[in-house]
């Protein structure tokens, strides 16, 4: 085992050295002087506007004499005020300062991939680094099958086999395997939805850099880290080198203050924000969430916020870590971490202020996450189904909220209501945690009483359609706690999806129409 | 406008042969390892192509799964730009570069030109429309599944945009996709640019892009994600014959006669020219070939 580990480490260093020579052995050559090496070795993150900006290109193959041209600012004497995102990227790229628009090589702390992204990533990794190449760090690659699991689709099943083969070959420490598809409980390692699993298994830590082959990787920003989604090629690159070239995003700051109304949830807040700035309002930017309302939020609330920043086009979302974060992490991770938060004098591209006490439950109407509407104004929309699940709205607290509303109502659902817990742990919580105010009944008992479908095996489920035999695959008018409602998102182009909070979803299930939760919550 | 096509092919046997295949095109064949001679022959050929307004040099072969790679274009002789000499030199150098596997060419921008019919869509074409999730079980790094992905490109589009791939076919007839704002939004799935590239799309020209799609397009080298100056999707129709010229920074619609300005492809250009980020890294000597 030691030989493999040493060989792997050596391989990773070799792979990394090929691409990022260290010059004097210290930090990488700095380009504040504006010097470009004889060749443009690696291009900056490929923003369409990168030519407009003075994007400094890191000349990886720069000649040694560059070292003497380092300006005082790069030697640590002058420090600028940085945002949380800038601080994280500065630390990960071993720079004392950086500015938005700058391209930096960052070290990845975690690379996550799943059954949809991994096969392609592994193919690229082997093609580019060699059939016998080893990943840069067997403890930093987390393999989580979660997308197409409970299906008879042969290719989908084969893709999980590919993950397993790779995990064995590379001796990957964290591989949340599933073999027995007929009974998810019989698979002790299996978790479910990757983003919720990453959080629950302690892979999200303040100040770290996390990449995943999934757009909702930004979910982890709730832990005060830099987390973003990438494609197979970038992931294959990280597998071999442990690094990636990233363009530092400017930060949009969202200050959420005021007392959260009892009928409002984090999902309402993020839908409000996306409706405000549009699906491209945060493209290439970081979204930072602060304020008294955020301070009071649980980790799951913060995840809901950060989960959907990609729907506004953002590169990453971030909630600075605090005592809530530290408490959540107790017992989950033994790896030390260093939290960061934005300096008081940091520059933000724009600041938005919300008084959450004045907000109302909202939905995103078909067919765009920014097609915001007040839930109460959609009360004439007759629906066919309700779907409660996904990384966005299938966490324990999401189900607790839905169950709470249903218990208060004492009524039964008027439409098929599908419950898809994100992970095994969430599923277990549904059957063990009592719902506040429901006289000791568990979530599952409340749901059964209300006539919902039995909570199903944890996975991404129908959030993104999936193979034809995916549970709850959608072709009708639906209220869903998921994250996207573009045409065909849940399996059928003609379906109409209203994105909503768990409260709104539960209320809608009880009436058969899009319903404001205040109909049930006083 | 007369177009003379010079196709450079790699041959097993040494030497150079120039064989006029037809009155409007000639084939310049050369073997690997004869770059200087090839460049010289190319220069003299171009200089002698008095009947052609435009010389297109298409390099055949090369990247494992693409049949034609980079195209270099000489300035029309009547062009206002005085860089025609420079262009020919660039061509020769580029030809050299392809043969040698090293690049001394432009560090920014691309000389690629794409001719073909365009397929026009609107705003916020998300990755679920470009390649619905049910097809994500196909692994892009497997050649057979790569081809299959291509056959499903844009299959998630609502009917109002029309058919992207003809019934029974596996490749699209449209080389250029013209879009509105926020093209490629949604998922990080690399299958999206891959499906488009595998289907035969060479460039998307959109008002703006979602970041992950843009980045994936460049990293894979599957297509050029070009930005138009302003919105052009309302003025072009599916089926129009267009030319996208990355060096000139123009999209010409031959059907309507209109021309539109494009934003420079910048540093993404050489990466896509090379066939993606790993190929580019090899070509520039960053990683051993």
Automatic annotation (TrEMBL), chain A:
Domain (Aconitase/3-isopropylmalate dehydratase large subunit alpha/beta/alpha): residue spans on this chain: 101-372, 376-512
Gene3D superfamilies named among the record's database cross-references: Aconitase, domain 3
InterPro entries: Acnase/IPM_dHydase_lsu_aba_1/3, Acoase/IPM_deHydtase_lsu_aba, Aconitase_4Fe-4S_dom, Homoacnase/IPMdehydase_lsu, IPM_dehydratase_rel_enz, IPMI_cat
The entry's keywords: 4Fe-4S, Iron, Iron-sulfur, Lyase, Metal-binding
SUPFAM superfamilies assigned to the protein according to its UniProt record, in alphabetical order: Aconitase iron-sulfur domain (SSF53732)
CDD domains reported in the protein's UniProt record: IPMI (cd01583)
Protein name: Aconitase/3-isopropylmalate dehydratase large subunit alpha/beta/alpha domain-containing protein
Organism of provenance: Sphagnum jensenii
From TrEMBL, chain B:
Alphabetical list of Pfam families matching this protein: Aconitase_C (PF00694)
Coiled-coil regions, chain positions: none
Origin superkingdom: Eukaryota
Protein keywords: Lyase
Transmembrane segments: none
Residues of the Aconitase A/isopropylmalate dehydratase small subunit swivel domain: 174-223
InterPro entries (alphabetical): Aconitase/3IPM_dehydase_swvl, AconitaseA/IPMdHydase_ssu_swvl, IPMI_Swivel, LeuD, LeuD_type2/HacB/DmdB
Record family assignment: Belongs to the LeuD family. LeuD type 2 subfamily.
Matches recorded under NCBIfam families: LEUD_arch
Protein name: Aconitase A/isopropylmalate dehydratase small subunit swivel domain-containing protein
């Amino acid at each position: 085992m030691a030989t493999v580990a040493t060989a792997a480490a050596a391989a990773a260093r070799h792979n990394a050295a090929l691409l990022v020579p260290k010059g004097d052995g210290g930090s990488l050559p700095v380009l504040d002087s504006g010097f470009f090496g004889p060749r443009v070795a690696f291009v900056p993150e490929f923003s369409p506007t990168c030519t407009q900006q003075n994007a400094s290109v890191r000349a990886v193959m720069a000649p040694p004499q560059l070292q003497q041209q380092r300006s005082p600012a790069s030697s640590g004497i002058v420090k600028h005020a940085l945002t949380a995102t800038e601080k994280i990227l500065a630390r990960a790229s071993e720079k004392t300062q950086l500015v938005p628009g700058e391209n930096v090589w960052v070290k990845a702390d975690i690379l996550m991939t799943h059954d949809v992204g991994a096969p392609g990533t592994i193919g690229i990794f082997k093609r580019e680094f060699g059939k016998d190449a080893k990943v840069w760090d067997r403890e930093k690659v987390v393999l989580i099958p979660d997308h197409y699991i409970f299906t008879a689709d042969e290719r989908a099943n084969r893709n999980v086999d590919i993950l397993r083969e790779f995990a064995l070959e590379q001796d990957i420490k964290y591989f949340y395997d599933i073999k027995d598809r007929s009974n998810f409980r019989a698979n002790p390692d299996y978790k479910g939805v990757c983003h919720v699993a990453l959080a629950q298994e302690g892979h999200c830590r303040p100040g770290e850099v996390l990449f995943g082959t999934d757009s909702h990787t930004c979910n982890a920003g709730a832990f005060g880290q830099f987390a973003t989604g990438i494609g197979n090629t970038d992931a294959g690159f990280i597998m071999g080198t442990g690094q990636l070239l990233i363009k530092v995003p400017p930060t949009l700051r969202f200050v959420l203050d005021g007392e959260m109304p009892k009928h409002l949830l984090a999902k309402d807040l993020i839908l409000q924000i996306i409706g405000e700035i549009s699906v491209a309002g945060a493209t290439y930017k970081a979204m930072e969430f602060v304020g008294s309302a955020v301070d009071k939020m649980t980790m799951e609330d913060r995840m809901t916020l950060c989960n959907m920043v990609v729907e506004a086009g953002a590169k990453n979302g971030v909630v600075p870590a605090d005592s809530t974060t530290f408490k959540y992490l107790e017992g989950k991770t033994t790896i030390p971490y260093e939290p960061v938060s934005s300096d008081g004098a940091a520059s933000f591209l724009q600041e938005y202020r919300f008084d959450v006490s004045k907000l109302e439950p909202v939905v995103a109407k078909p067919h765009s996450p920014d097609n915001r509407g007040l839930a109460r104004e959609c009360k004439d929309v007759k629906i066919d189904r309700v779907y409660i699940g996904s990384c966005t709205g299938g966490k324990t607290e999401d189900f607790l909220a839905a169950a709470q509303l249903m218990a208060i109502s004492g009524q039964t659902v008027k439409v098929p209501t599908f419950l898809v817990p994100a992970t095994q742990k969430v599923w277990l919580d549904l059957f063990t945690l009592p719902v506040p105010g429901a006289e000791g009944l568990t979530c599952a008992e409340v749901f059964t009483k209300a006539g919902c479908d039995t909570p199903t095996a944890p996975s991404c489920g129908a959030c993104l359609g999936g193979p034809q035999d995916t549970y709850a695959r959608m072709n009708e008018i639906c209220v869903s706690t998921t994250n996207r409602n573009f045409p065909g998102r849940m399996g059928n182009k003609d379906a109409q999806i209203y994105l909503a909070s768990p409260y709104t979803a539960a209320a809608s299930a009880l009436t058969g129409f899009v319903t404001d939760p205040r109909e049930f919550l006083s | 406008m007369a177009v003379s096509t010079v196709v450079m092919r790699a041959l097993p046997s040494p030497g150079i042969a120039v064989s006029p295949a037809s009155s409007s095109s000639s084939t310049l064949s050369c073997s690997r390892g004869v770059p200087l001679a090839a460049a010289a022959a190319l220069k003299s050929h171009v200089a002698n192509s008095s009947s052609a307004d435009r010389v297109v040099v298409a390099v055949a072969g090369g990247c494992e799964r693409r049949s034609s790679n980079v195209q270099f274009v000489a300035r029309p002789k009547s062009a206002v730009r005085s860089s025609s000499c420079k262009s020919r030199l660039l061509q020769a150098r580029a030809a050299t570069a392809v043969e040698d596997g090293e690049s001394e060419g432009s560090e920014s921008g691309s000389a690629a030109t794409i001719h073909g019919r365009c397929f026009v869509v609107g705003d916020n074409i998300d990755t679920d429309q470009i390649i619905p999730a049910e097809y994500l079980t196909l692994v892009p790094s497997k050649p057979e599944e790569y081809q299959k992905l291509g056959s499903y490109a844009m299959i998630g589009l609502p009917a109002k945009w029309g058919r992207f791939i003809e019934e029974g076919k596996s490749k699209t007839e449209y080389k250029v996709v013209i879009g509105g704002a926020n093209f490629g939004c949604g998922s990080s799935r690399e299958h999206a640019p891959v499906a488009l590239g595998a289907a035969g799309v060479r460039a998307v020209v959109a008002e703006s892009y979602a970041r992950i799609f843009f980045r994936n397009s460049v990293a894979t080298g599957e297509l050029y994600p070009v930005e138009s100056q302003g919105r052009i999707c309302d003025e072009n129709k599916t089926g129009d014959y267009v030319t996208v010229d990355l060096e000139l920074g123009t999209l010409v619609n031959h059907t309507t006669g209109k021309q539109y300005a494009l934003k420079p492809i910048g540093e993404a250009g050489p990466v896509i020219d090379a066939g993606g980020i790993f190929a580019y890294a090899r070509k520039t000597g960053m990683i051993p070939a």
